[in-house]
């Protein structure tokens, strides 16, 4: 039987990818940010899973106003890094896991969550920046990745509660897979940021840190936070944080072990938050 061994949470600011790709990670501005991921890289080397189930959002790259799936599961054998305007990032092609992805789609859809099945999709910074932060600059990503795209860009967006329960359904699906795969689930995006309008540049350290506390200790109650609170307190793009609840919902009901916690402001316009939670086996 497959199982979820750990969850990883991280922001996905595109400028982080550019800093890495352009060799600027040692610059004064970026050094403290990347230092926060040193522990992570070492942890990941010791805890490389068989598959990563990576919850992220597409930023009008693969999808657009033409078509807006709320939840989309990537079932393809591979996913190319997207061209977001400056050419594709120089990072490896993402290899998928079509068998496990199809199994999760079957199980989760039968559990009443309407997923869109995607057989061709380029992946943007929402997916490639978290991989770079955790795996470093590599020739090949260390394991297959199932991209799971959530609409947090165009209203209406899914609630935290629905995301949390979807995580539960993903956990069940993984536990029913017939091969002993170790699966990590990653929740990405956030933390507080607003890229537009009069409040552009908004950061809310105290709200973010309380979110981290509650994600660890009382995720089910945190899932009750309405989407308007995310927008008011964490900015219009802070709503990306509902994706973290999918990953948290997929964890065991027992308290997790906090393997790493990090918070850093600023990275571009965003407060970077990062957590690694391990399931006790
Ligand atoms: C920034 C952050 C994001 O999450 C994003 O998708 C795009 C830009 C930023 O802070 O620049
Ligand atoms: Fe984003």
UniProtKB/TrEMBL annotation:
Record-level Gene Ontology MF annotations: dioxygenase activity
Native species: Steroidobacter flavus
Keyword Endoplasmic reticulum: no
Protein name: Class III extradiol dioxygenase subunit beta
Record domain Extradiol ring-cleavage dioxygenase class III enzyme subunit B: where: 8-272
Short name of any one Pfam family annotated for the protein: LigB
Gene3D superfamilies the record matches: LigB-like
The keyword Oxidoreductase belongs to this UniProt entry's keyword annotation: yes
Keyword terms: Dioxygenase, Oxidoreductase
């Amino acid at each position: 039987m497959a199982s979820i061994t750990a969850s990883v949470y991280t922001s996905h600011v595109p400028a982080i990818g550019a800093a890495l790709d352009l060799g600027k990670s040692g610059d004064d501005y970026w050094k403290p940010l990347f230092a926060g991921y040193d522990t992570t890289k070492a942890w990941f080397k010791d805890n490389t899973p068989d598959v990563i189930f990576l919850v992220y959002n597409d930023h009008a790259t693969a999808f657009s106003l033409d078509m807006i799936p709320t939840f989309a599961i990537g079932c393809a054998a591979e996913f190319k890094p997207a061209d977001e305007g400056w050419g594709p990032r120089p990072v490896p092609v993402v290899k998928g896991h079509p068998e496990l992805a199809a199994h999760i789609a079957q199980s989760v859809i039968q559990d009443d969550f309407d997923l869109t099945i995607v057989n061709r999709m380029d992946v943007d910074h929402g997916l490639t920046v978290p991989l770079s932060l955790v795996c470093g600059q590599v020739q090949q990503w260390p394991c297959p990745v199932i991209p799971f795209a959530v609409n947090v860009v165009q209203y209406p967006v899914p609630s935290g509660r629905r995301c949390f329960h979807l995580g539960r359904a993903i956990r069940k699906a993984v536990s029913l897979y017939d091969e002993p795969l170790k699966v990590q689930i990653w929740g990405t995006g956030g933390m507080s940021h607003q890229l537009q309008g009069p409040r552009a540049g908004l950061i809310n350290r105290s709200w973010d840190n309380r979110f981290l506390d509650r994600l660890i200790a009382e995720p089910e109650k945190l899932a009750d936070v309405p989407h308007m609170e995310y927008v008011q307190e964490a900015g219009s793009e802070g709503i990306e944080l509902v994706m973290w609840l999918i990953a948290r919902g997929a964890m065991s009901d027992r308290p997790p072990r906090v393997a790493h916690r990090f918070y850093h402001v600023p990275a571009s316009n965003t407060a970077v938050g990062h957590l690694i939670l391990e399931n006790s086996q």
